[in-house]
From TrEMBL:
Gene3D superfamilies: Beta Polymerase, domain 2 (3.30.460.10). CDD domains: NT_Rel-Spo_like. This is RelA/SpoT domain-containing protein. GO terms for biological process: guanosine tetraphosphate metabolic process. It comes from Botryotinia calthae. It comes from the Eukaryota. InterPro entries: NT_sf, RelA_SpoT. The lineage of its organism: Eukaryota, Fungi, Dikarya, Ascomycota, Pezizomycotina.
Length: 220
């Protein structure tokens, strides 16, 4: 995995250089199993909360895809209910290895995403809010939607709960011509998550992640 990630960083650096994008060094991390296990538990809670929210939304005759888009959860529209098998668990660990590209100017975010999309196989792309307790936010939406005047209150909840830190996330694979022939079999299905955001966004994300998840991990 380390060799794959190193290759990916090299390609990203060359792509950003070709686009004259100024940026600090690209950082990366590969999760330890203990961390991955915590991620799976958290995403299981999110999937269950998302299923409950979908049931409430559909019971009111509203569009589930529309609500996913409103909540910034469109990439998770089908990620509902408990994990059903090994493949769903593996798919939930798309960020087992991850890169972080920090840039100085917000206007460069979409340009960086475009440069990388021209060099890598992009499996999915979305904008994500801060590292916050998504399961709790979904539960808050369920509570509000069960009250009178739900639609208006939910709109206010979305504005208050789901805005803030936003970064562009790409799930990528190496293009076939970037994979050495000897590595084709073990590397062809590896996916890595790339976070693209401003330097100040990523600093805040680190602070918030430590405040939220370290206490939660101690409770598991």
């Amino acid at each position: 995995m380390e060799a794959y990630t190193t290759k990916l960083i090299d390609i990203c650096n060359k792509a950003l250089t070709s686009g004259n994008v100024r940026h600090p060094p690209i950082t990366h991390r590969i999760k330890k199993w203990e961390s991955a296990e915590g991620t799976l538990r958290r995403r299981q809670r999110e999937r269950i909360a998302r299923q409950r929210l979908r049931d409430v939304v559909q019971s009111k005759g509203w569009s589930w895809p529309d609500w996913c888009r409103i909540l910034g959860q469109e990439q998770c529209e089908e990620e509902i209910g408990p994990f059903q098998g090994p493949q769903e668990i593996l798919d939930a660990l798309h960020d087992f290895s991850g890169l972080r590209i920090s840039i100085y100017f917000p206007g460069d975010v979409e340009r960086v995403a475009s440069l990388l999309s021209n060099r890598l196989r992009v499996v999915s792309e979305w904008r994500k809010d801060q590292d916050s307790d998504i399961a709790q936010k979904l539960e808050n939406c369920i509570e509000v939607l069960n009250e009178p005047g739900a639609a208006g209150k939910a709109a206010d909840l979305v504005k208050g709960e789901f805005l803030g830190y936003r970064a562009t996330h790409l799930i990528v694979k190496l293009a076939p011509n970037d994979i050495p022939p000897a590595k084709l079999s073990p590397w062809k299905d590896i996916k890595v998550e790339i976070q693209i955001g401003t330097l100040i966004m990523h600093v805040w994300s680190e602070i918030e992640h430590d405040m939220l998840y370290k206490p939660l991990a101690s409770q598991d």
